[in-house]
Amino acid sequence: MSSLLIKNARYLGDSVDLLVVDGKVQSLSASINAPADAEIVDAAGKILFPSLIDVHTHLREPGYEWKETVATGLSSAAHGGFGAILCMANTDPVNDDAAVTEQILESARRSWPNGPRVHPIGAATVGLKGEELTRMSELKDAGCVAISNDGRPVGNTEIFRRMLEYAADLDLIVIDHCEDPYLAAKSHMNEGATSGVLGVKGQPDVAETIQASRSILLADYLGVPVHIAHVSAKRTVDIIAWGKSRGVKVTAETTPHYLTLDDTAVNGYNTLAKVNPPLRTPADVAAMREAVKTGVIDMLATDHAPHAAHEKETPFDEAPNGFTGMDLALTITYGLVREGVLTEADLIRLWATEPARVFNLPVNTFEPGAPADFFLFDPELEWQVTPETLYSKSHNTPWLGKSLKGRVSAHWIGGVKIV
Ligand code: DOR
Ligand code: ZN
């Protein structure tokens, strides 16, 4: 029997001790006497969190290992407080085949045997081409926990309908990257005042809303669930709220960047602020904050999308979309707690319990018997975002060079210290 006692941590505003025995939570209370053999960790000044779940990451292996590997992605996850992550299928080869799923899982087992855990998301269509459905049951048997065409939105509504039906039969949720491919064609940022001034072709926010509406209407018609990825626009929040009010089984995520940045971050043709869906307007940011508070948006996810420095150091129109995200996610969203927008309980709901509920994954509730997946967050630690302080292989974030406050200081999964 091995036991671990975390002393004097802060949990939802109270000072607590946490006793872990054999990888499981034994008790959480104001004061616990140490068992004879216990390892004791003094956590004074640190905040205790259950390990977070990131339902939207891109790990780049196989095929794009210069951007990220499963090993470096999991390092970023471990240091960001994530105990489990879901990874998208836009690798090379695409994860449209059980052999690719198994390769990802094997890389994870080899590099981080004690976790964080990886749960691959299978491609919805072969090669993500949007033409032919994948063999979803084989993907599920190999370990995929959801289905998505993320990065390559599905234009054909008939194929999208079949995708929803087959996935639902297998109890797999479809995660929809909502973007009308015609309205969004060749766009590089949000369509609005800033794109007008910069002379960059913009993507109207309604490109997202139209596809989200399609998903919600089909989910309603078929009586199946659908999960809307990385919501960026107020209009989309409104249509999700409508779906929920009708009883449609629609869930949704947004990211730290849509809660904190608007399209003026692109000024100066800043490729580090180029992401898809694009950063929108201050009114959209306000709507996202409201939606995570009320639960119209169920959860947070990073859309961790690493790209190498040389790939972002190009003319704006040529740069790839995306931000590396897992190192920064909790620090950025803890900033919203400081601002009074969210509470620590909201963060636990949005980053852990709701992702676990929707994607049917284990989560640490700190009830006796729960998996001892948890970390300590030092809210006072000041750090600068540099290539050296990020564990992801890539450093493509609009926060690069900025000074931030708060970071994970230690992380345990199943009672084993991983960082
Ligand atoms: O910004 C993005 N990056 N959006 C996507 O849809 C794909 C992702 C990537 O894979 O880089
Ligand atoms: Zn994505």
UniProtKB/TrEMBL annotation:
Where, by residue number, does substrate bind?
H58, L59, R60, N90, N276, H307
Which UniProt keyword terms apply here?
Hydrolase, Metal-binding, Pyrimidine biosynthesis, Zinc
Q: What class of enzyme is it?
A: hydrolase
Q: Which domain of life is it from?
A: Bacteria
The free-text note explaining how the cofactor binds reads: Binds 2 Zn(2+) ions per subunit.
Q: Which SUPFAM superfamilies does this entry report, sorted A to Z? A: Composite domain of metallo-dependent hydrolases, Metallo-dependent hydrolases
Please list the residues that bind Zn(2+) 1.
H56, H58, D150, D303
Q: Molecular function terms in GO for this entry?
A: allantoinase activity; dihydroorotase activity; zinc ion binding
Which Pfam families does this chain map to? DHOase
Q: Which PROSITE patterns match?
A: DIHYDROOROTASE_2 (PS00483)
What this protein catalyses is: (S)-dihydroorotate + H2O = N-carbamoyl-L-aspartate + H(+)
Name assigned to this protein:
Dihydroorotase
Q: Which organism is it from?
A: Bilophila wadsworthia (strain 3_1_6)
Taxonomic path: Bacteria, Pseudomonadati, Thermodesulfobacteriota, Desulfovibrionia, Desulfovibrionales
Q: Give me the gene this protein comes from.
A: pyrC
